[in-house]
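Structure ticket #2291
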Amino acid sequence: MKKLIVFFLIFFFLIFQSNAKKIIIADISDNKINIDVGFQGAKLLFFGVIDEEGDVVVSVTGPRKAIRVRKKEKKMGIWLNSDTKIFYDVPSYYYVAATRPLEQLKAENLLKINQVGIKNIRFEGAEEKEKEERNYWIDGIVNSMVEAERYNPKQGIIKLSDKRLFKTELNFSAELVDGEYLVDTLLLKDGNVIAARRSFINVSKSGYGEKIYKMSKNNRLSYGLIAVFFAIVFGLFVHESIRRFNA
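Resolution: structure written out below.
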């Protein structure tokens, strides 16, 4: 199977080589992820071919959303929300892989422009704050996303074969949200982008997970009543089990 994939990559490479000076061809083993009850994450193979030597960088960005961030302060021994800000265009997921560590690519400005690397992600919101204070809020968002396993602080590794074929494994945690994920591939050389490609991965809920999600959105009252009912039943079950165990 792998030999067949490589064959088609080389075939398309030869076809397009005459039509473009610098190209990059890439594909994913599966462009769809289904989230069901018990979903533990997913691993997808990302592979491709380049027509010129260089460094390959792949970034995965989840659907961008607006989030509300609260700042807590301790007053009279009690932690209270002292300030609240809304940030927009915040990626719900982020992962990056490259043939070399990003700091060794000598393309700091280019990576910043293309939002490659967690530290280069741009957020909108709280522009009225001073730069230092605004960065404090942004660091809080990033740290929360890392703790929630939605941002991967570890850079993935892209392997090159014969300086033309590349492959890497895209790792997705169980904390995925549904929506369209962007997979951007850049070919860098001497600090410049000489080829680029964008792919897509569709993440959607399925099975009981999808039904529960739709009920929570479309029938909130019924969803709330059912949730309370099961909570009461579970509480009574635990109470009765403990009582019999201690009897």
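Closing remark: The chain has five helices and twelve strands.
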